[in-house]
Amino acid sequence: MMAKELRINTFQMCAPIHNWAGLWRLPGDRAVDYNKLDYWTDMAQTAERGLLDAIFIADVFGVYDVYGGSPDAALRAGAQIPNMDPVVPVSAMAHVTRNIGFGITANLSFEHPFQMARRFSTLDHMTGGRIGWNIVTGYLESGARGMGRSVQTEHDARYDLAEDFMAAIYKLWESSWEEGAVVRDAEAGIFTDPARVHRITHNGPHFQVDGIHLSEPSPQRTPVLFQAGTSERGRQFAGRHAECVFINGPTQKIAAGAAGKLRDAAEAAGRSGNDLSLFLAANVIIAPTSAQARELHAEYSRHLDAAGQLALVSGWTGMDLSTLSPEDVVPFARTNAIQSTLENITAKAPRPVLAKDLVALTATGARAPFIYGTASEVADQLLEWAEATGVDGFNLARLSVPATLNSIVDQLVPELQARKRFKTAYADGTFRQKLGSPSARLMAPHPARLHG
Amino acid sequence: MMAKELRINTFQMCAPIHNWAGLWRLPGDRAVDYNKLDYWTDMAQTAERGLLDAIFIADVFGVYDVYGGSPDAALRAGAQIPNMDPVVPVSAMAHVTRNIGFGITANLSFEHPFQMARRFSTLDHMTGGRIGWNIVTGYLESGARGMGRSVQTEHDARYDLAEDFMAAIYKLWESSWEEGAVVRDAEAGIFTDPARVHRITHNGPHFQVDGIHLSEPSPQRTPVLFQAGTSERGRQFAGRHAECVFINGPTQKIAAGAAGKLRDAAEAAGRSGNDLSLFLAANVIIAPTSAQARELHAEYSRHLDAAGQLALVSGWTGMDLSTLSPEDVVPFARTNAIQSTLENITAKAPRPVLAKDLVALTATGARAPFIYGTASEVADQLLEWAEATGVDGFNLARLSVPATLNSIVDQLVPELQARKRFKTAYADGTFRQKLGSPSARLMAPHPARLHG
């Protein structure tokens, strides 16, 4: 059997810093232009030149204010704050490209399915069927407070709400308008055949809907569904709903375990484990020679912003790390935040974990493989990780802008192509079809089709 | 004193039909492509070629189901259904233009200020300060039902909620981040100076906010504020908040009255009447000769879809017109829907108004001037209307796509320029500055600056 081609997304965010605080200060770095439209259209064109599968845009709805009980450290570092709505730049990126997909993070905790359904249908129409939705529930208390709620919903209850949300939004996307309902028959004077448009009613514990979906069916109807939960409840949700799952995994063993459990969860939900495309987060630094890659790594490390990084980690773990001295042991405790973060950080850390270790650890791979070297060396390692873990590909994080993406497109992709482990042209069809589905639409037994 | 230049927006909607049902069936009409991105980028480039002030995109959150108690007639006619989220195409339109503004309709009834603030800040960043927000509250019961609410909020109560919404969102846009808070100082390692970012608390009757605004200040901070209310309560709201007001007026007397009352409302709110730019809706058909314009009018009239038009009017007025025979007198009654519609329809109608009169009346100008002729004839009439009513310009409705906009850009604009009544180049600066403001930001005594 021929070895599979890797899938590669570029992992981005509408903020000056994503996961490695300090890198916006690199000489010539363009991250400071995150709020300019050309920043996004240039990125899209570069990524499509490299035949990448998707631009995956993270989002966080809130600010990292666990560290020191204030947003000050995050603000000073530009650590995911300021941030912006990732829906907005999509149509511009779609306009300058033809094939690349867009994985857009949208938090459903503060949305209603009736409204969200229209927004994503519009995105799918305007991109010609290239939209994916990364389904997240909020984990920052600050986001809940901003929205006038006194506390964030508890972790598992967020998934109950998400299940109800999905049940309602599937009905709108898949069942309200039959195939062929929109006839555009000018002679007969019929735009839509009303007999083939159906009122949706949903009376769930959290959401009620009564009405027809406002948009006509888009090329994919339901966007390609991304998800990232790796708690037990999150895996159960992913097993039922996700087509692509984004996983963190600092060691091959952890990543392989997460991958296996996710495929099991899909089987438990009556789907095939192979219905899931698994993307492992990874950080890469690529240069023409190993020595140059080492130098780049050293330069990035010199620019690491310790306080900004701890502000991020405090948000991820829900623990205020500002009170610790560098030599203090980190007192890990279970919180209401992202549960996998803790497990991932501790997996590769020295025991006990000292406060000073956290900064470099989390920036460079406590949560994900961190690989630097020549394109050939990086390709070796990515292929080894894929082999050892069973993932389908990687979400390659932005480190320096646009250097990281340029190096992926100009160095890594040709190397993988030479090894026949990366496509040399996009497949036809929608984003879902380019990811290997025989259909533009989700198919049974996916729960979206239970009602369609 | 030199006569003022007219302001002209093109008035669009993300739907196959806007206000004149049936026109999508015109030979060669492109309205059926409303869900394609090129439709929007082509429109933007054409409008900017004509130096138009803005692309004003209407929206309706719901479906017209008053007529016959079902959405069938609206669906068959494509009458504002299907419809899409007007936020989505903006960045693509911004990418292919440099100067034109975007007036985007967004219903605040189902939004939260914390989330809406981030979305519009993102739009303003990505367009380089070219965003306007047309503030609307929902008027279709179907929209409320879709969102799981049993009844739409009553008319005046919607404005109470809107006042609370605006008070909260102004704080986020204007007061959370001081000027100069974002320093982007790579050497000092400071992206944002946290001392100049402030937590916003808002405890209103409808909305609570506790947190910093998530986006850094965009070029205009608060987008240019459009509003369209002409009820007494609506005018009071416009007088306090609006910078641009979109008015309907079937006769010069009604339009002049509305314009005068709006400027009075601004004065009553402590602002100047001239702080408002008033745009009168108008329908124009322009052709090289009067005879050709007459022929176009006849052709458009032949394509008028009576049932689709009555579906629209039933939605606007809240009266089910499906039960009436053509010769029946229309029993006008006050409802919870758009109050000015009734007044406007009856103003120009024969008395009593028969059901059969409503169709042509509402398509061709019961709510707005309807003018057809050569560019010179249309210019004469628009200037006369502007003179007689005191409005600053017009929202020229899309009738045929792209014929209407092309005729405005290629025929009407040069005619107005030759008369020195239309600009020959865009002014510098943001949308607000292009509209004549000395500042990119709103200025006191506008209530947005009470907190800034």
Automatic annotation (TrEMBL), chains A, B:
Q: Name one Pfam family in it.
A: Bac_luciferase
For this UniProt record, the keywords arranged alphabetically read as follows: Flavoprotein, FMN, Monooxygenase, Oxidoreductase
Q: Which domain of life is it from?
A: Bacteria
| UniProt xrefs under InterPro entries | Diverse_substr_monoxygenases (IPR051260), Luciferase-like_dom (IPR011251), Luciferase-like_sf (IPR036661), NTA_MOA (IPR016215)
Identify the PANTHER family for this entry.
ALKANESULFONATE MONOOXYGENASE-RELATED (PTHR30011), C2H2 FINGER DOMAIN TRANSCRIPTION FACTOR (EUROFUNG)-RELATED (PTHR30011:SF16)
Query: What family does this chain come from, according to its entry?
Result: Belongs to the NtaA/SnaA/DszA monooxygenase family.
Task: Kindly provide the name given to this protein in its UniProt entry.
Answer: LLM class flavin-dependent oxidoreductase
